[in-house]
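Hello forum,

I keep getting stuck at the same step: I have a sequence, I want structure tokens, and every attempt I make locally crashes halfway through. Rather than fight my setup again tonight, could one of you with a working pipeline run this one for me? It's a single chain of 455 residues.
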Amino acid sequence: MTIAEFKDNFSKTTSLAVPVMLSQLGQVLVGVADSMMVGRLGAEPLAAASLANSIFYVALMFGIGVSMAITPLVAMEDGKRNAGKISRLFNHGFVINMATGTILFLVIVLASPLLKHLNQPEEVVVQAIPYLAIITFSLLPFMFFQTFKQLAEGLSQTKQAMYITLFCNGINVFLNWVFIYGNMGFPAMGLNGAGWATLISRILMGAIIVYYVWNSKRYKPFSLGLGIKKLSFPMIARMLKIGVPTGFQFIFEVGAFSAAAIMMGWISVNALAAHQIAINLASVSYMMASGLSIAAMVRVGNQLGRNDIKSLREAGFTVFVMVALFMSISAIIFIVFREFLPSLYIDDIEVIKMSATLLIIAGLFQLSDGIQVVGLGALRGMADVRVPTIVTLIAYWVIGLPLGYVFGFVMGMQEVGIWYGLLIGLTVTGILLLFRFHRLSSRLLREKNSKIPSV
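Reply #2:
Ran it on my machine without issues. Output:
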């Protein structure tokens, strides 16, 4: 790839990725704001938020993964200029997403009493259960929003979802201030107030995006509808073949960090609170990197639809370079400001010191985290999900978490040991997924070149 080609790919990817990155950043900043505002109530409410979110985000990320099946398929059809197929993909995606949201909602509601049996501090569990119940209700409006968002991103329309997300997240922060602390005449709800703010803001997100899409001239050619008539089970199967493994990819990664949170609870309330702060900060860079991952998915899917494999490889490797640069900067920030950043959440000296130590490790795994999330996106754009799912399962649950347990409890390294295990899991994943993209795209290029008749 020449410098001119890299600059062209960089420009195209940036214009597509920046709105998605800002949208993802807006999403995670709500979690940051929640943790900061709840942290002012003390270590116990913050630990309760960590415990509840460790369960909720496993379900949420699975739902996001399922919804992402819409984007690469729409991108491929957009490359072929097939409007009719795009409208059918949206219709089927809506049905799949709402069914998924309903199932996830029921699973969490039925499983929430199990928090009492995870050997967590009793005072933390008491606060976590009602908070978890409230935020679980937000799954359905969130999956509704995701359906429209993934359609728009598949069509390379990323700015609108960004504006909606940022606006509603601002509403969420304002409602946090009202409900958590009892301002403007409302009773002080504490941690539960953060849950109500999340629920209301996500309902608003769904309402605004459907209003925009149904009234925008950009989407008129697709004749979008939300009905359940004329469903094609082969199309549903095709979407689930991408969406379900993608959901499991998210589960294996997010679930690993959730399992780490549970292990932190075995150590102490302070360790769990420190984990919440460090993972909350690490999620900022991760979610922005996931914006680049979505850009990789769309650009690779577009080029695959056009059968331009050379451009597919160039687009993919350009995003790998971009995420490496971005995550390197994030690593420097985490390490340099490791003591200042936790102080924004809580004034407990012991928790701040624990968080600062974990942020050093978070800085070390930034590059691996960015490479692996972009690798998943680029491969998803090629509809390659089965092998990456197996990779994430092995890297996190066969290598990372067991090593974290050994380091933390057998070798006595406690919270630091658990995070070293996560670092190793992320590194293995990043290396294998980068190699996978290189191997598959090289094979596609050879196959295409072999079909070109010689002159």
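The chain has one domain: 3-449. If your local run keeps crashing, start a new thread with the error log.
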